[in-house]
Amino acid sequence: MRRTKLGFRRRDGEERKKVVIVMEKLPQELIIDILSRLPTLSLLQSTRVCRSWHQIITTDPIFTTLRYNRSPISTDALFLTNSKRLYFNQLIKPHSSPNIDLSSFLHGINTERFDLKVIGVCNGLICFATFPKVIPRARGRTNNFYRVNSFHIINPISKEKLQLPKFPKSLKIGSTSKIESMIYEFGFDKRNQVFKLVFFVFGLNENVKKLLLFTLEGVASRWRSVSGNVVPCMMRYAFSNASSIYVDGCLHWITRNTMPNSTDRTLVIMSFNLSDEAFGVIQTPELVVVDHHSVHELAVLDNSLCWVDSESNNHINIWIKKGDESWTRSFCLQKSIVAPPSFGPVTPIKFEQNGRLFLKNRKCVACYDVQDNTATFFDVNYGDPQRDSYPDVFPFVGSFISINSH
């Protein structure tokens, strides 16, 4: 048996050497192109094959650009489970995809006292916050989402982590009893090549609005307040406290706006340019008057802004907006196949060239075959014996960006 095992190891090593020898004969441009198509876990293994591959994957700017342009191919799924576990999964096979546990990044965080919430996933970095656990009271539950304990940024691939400094006293956000809502977002400033954490605070008084920014730039990293009345009033009604909708240097939210000469409100999309630190408005594909609970979602698909309309009882329409182009309806899915009633709303995660569309819902991840009109489901609680809550799912493209270099 030992000889057999050693023989296999020797044979594997010989095969690996043959692959490297063949690859080294290829032009550098072709090697970069091949490596940029690999999924995250395969890419991580490739850094250990030889020094030249490690250098390409970790430092080559052409490789980095190609990889992000091909993110629909290499996208993994990041899960946050039970408010105290982090792991990611490549969704290889239903019910048997291996989970990569990221609990080592939570060292020093008491998950019995604090809940975790992912604020944003951008360019391979994950930003999450900790909040005191919600304690049941005799008259309802307290909303501890306004009581931020700490912010953290991690890179699961380079295995780096960073806890952000506390708010300086000069940027007091006020008593939580006077706060109506907060919004958190994380993204990348393309012009200045820095990551930014955006933090909105809305008081009970409609005139009270604050915008705080944390810029991640090495020793110059800091919190600051954006002065002036720059935050539009309708940002107060944003649907999500942390939506993680980042496209081409801008963050996005769904919110409501009052129609002229009417008390009705319509849905609009607000954007925030991280370079200019300015807001913009994007119209939805179709006019939506808010008269009931909204069944619309924002997502990112093929590096483009995506609008999901689940208002119909039978179908889910998915619209895509590429750059400055108009909205295009790209998918019309049969709701009974991808989103049974108890599964809740769906949001696309990635679309593969073989015609498979991955979508998340409240209970699982669905893989929809566009050609066959069939769906396969991945149990995202797989391996979790408690199964007492459902995870949040985020598209994730691994990178070797160093947190300490920004």
UniProtKB/TrEMBL annotation:
UniProt xrefs under Gene3D superfamilies: 1.20.1280.50
PROSITE patterns assigned: FBOX
UniProt cross-references to NCBIfam families, sorted A to Z: F_box_assoc_1 (TIGR01640)
Domain F-box residues, every copy: 20-66
Protein name (Swiss-Prot/TrEMBL): Galactose oxidase
Cross-referenced InterPro entries: F-box-assoc_dom_typ3, F-box-assoc_interact_dom, F-box-like_dom_sf, F-box_dom, SCF_F-box_component
Database matches in Pfam families: F-box-like (PF12937), FBA_3 (PF08268)
